[in-house]
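Hey team,

Sharing the NUDIX domain-containing protein run so nobody has to redo it. Sequence (109 residues) first:
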Amino acid sequence: MNIRNSAKAIIIQDHQLLAIKKRDKDGYYFILPGGGQEHGENLHQTLQRECIEEINTTVEIANLLFNREYIGKNHEHFEFDGNIHQLEYMFLCTSEPPPPNLRFERGFY
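Structure output:
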C-alpha cells in the first residue's frame, strides 16, 4: 500500500464554506474540493487542477492551514476505503468570481 498526497481547498465566502455534496448508501456527506497529487506536480498545481475538474474554476491559493492523515481502515468507510493511506494538505483559497453554478449552503443535512 502506497501513501498518497492530496490537496484540498478551504473556500469561505460570506461566512459559508464551499463543500461538494455527495451521496452514498448511507445518505449525504460533504467533501472539500481537491484530490490526489499526480507524479511531477507540486501541491499547488494539484489543487488548481482538481478545482478546475471539480468546481470548474481556478483558485488563488493562500496559506496551508493544516494537515490530516487519513488511514481508511480506521474509519467508518473501511469496507471500500480500507486500503487508502493519504496525507491531506488543506489550503485556504479564494475564488473570484465565485465558482459558476455552485451555491454555498448554511448548515449540514
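The domain at 3-94 is CATH 3.90.79.10 (Nucleoside Triphosphate Pyrophosphohydrolase).

Ping me if you want the raw files.
A.
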